[in-house]
Amino acid sequence: MTGARSDILLAVQAALQSPPLLEARNLERRFGAARALRGLSLSVQAGECHLIVGPNGAGKTTLLRLLAGLARPTAGTVVIEGGRRRIGLLSHQSQLYNELTAVENLAFAARLHGVADPARAARTCLTAVGLAERADDPVGKLSRGMVQRVAIAKALLHAPRLLLLDEPFTGLDLQATEQTLALLGAERAAGRALVLVTHDAQEAWDLATHAHLLVRGVWAFGGPREASLEHFLRRCREALRG
Fold first, then answer.
1. Whether 51 contacts 28, CB under 8 Å
2. Which residues of the chain have pLDDT under 70?
């Protein structure tokens, strides 16, 4: 066996032996008599991107809230390797202060996470999402797409190992979408893990390593991403008709 092949084999073996960054088991979430999630499990390793699609009301946002620790499951467990401080979250709400500038919002978040040189880290992240020139503008005066990019920068600010992203491309134009995809691809290549919820599988298909369809709180199907987006979408249509 050559040295290069040996190194690859050792790397694969190490990855297989390492614990997942995220392990959710048998999650259930009830709202009164209604069950939003029913016995849902998900395991995510470093360098993976799990794409989750499903119709409105399927439980996608509820699932992300449980994974992020923003809500408690009625039953089941969530284990995050390294603890929840290693999570970067992008939710439907931007969690930004409109009266503060973009850089002030991020610098404040950086201080909460113990990031060294918060102001510099904030400007670096804003540059990464293409907002260096708007860094000193109040968030309340930015467009919807720009606010989304500030929120994405905030999620990446503290170099989290696990990114939980709820509709990350909402409000973004084509150029910003492509920039965000490249940025998230670099994060995945660096060993970050991603769980990405979207209503449009096509947007993040090339980024995904796994793809799942959530329907009425349960997995209709899911696993390693198929080669063909068209086949995946056809399976989704068939599952939703059934």
1. no
2. 1-17
